[in-house]
Amino acid sequence: MTREKKLWWSFILVVLISFGVLLYYGYEIYQVAPPVPEAVVDENGEQLFTGDDIRDGQNIWQSIGGQEVGSIWGHGAYVAPDWTADYLHREALHILGIYAQREYAKPYDALQEEQQALLSTRLKKNIRKNTYDPATKTLTIDADRIAAYRELSAYYAGLFTDDPKFDQLRKDYAIPVNSIQDATRMQQMNAFFFWATLATVTNRPDAEVSYTHNWPNEKLVGNEMTMDLLAWSGVSIILLIFCVGALVLYQVKSGEDDELLYPAEDPLLRQGVTPSMRLVKKYFWVVSLLMLVQVGLGIVTAHYGVEGDGLYGIPIDQFLPYAVTRTWHTQLAIFWIATAWLATGLYIAPAVSGKDPKFQVFGVNFLFIALLIIVAGSMIGQWFGVMQKLNLVENFWFGHQGYEYVDLGRFWQIFLFVGLFVWLALMIRPLLPVLRRGGEEKNLIIMFLISCSAIALFYGAGLMWGRQTNLAIAEYWRWWVVHLWVEGFFEVFATVVMAFLFVRLGLLKPKSATSSVLFSTIIFLSGGILGTFHHLYFSGTPTAVMALGATFSALEVVPLTIIGFEAYHNYKISKATKWLQDYKWPIYFLISVAFWNFLGAGVFGFIINPPIALYYVQGLNTTPLHGHTALFGVYGMLGIGLMLFVLRSLYRNVKWNDKLIKVGFWGLNIGLLGMALLSLLPVGVWQAIESIGKGMWYARSAELMQQPGMVFLKWMRTPGDVVFAIGVFAIAWFVFDLTLKNKK
Question: Average pLDDT, whole number, for the chain?
Answer without folding.
Answer: 90
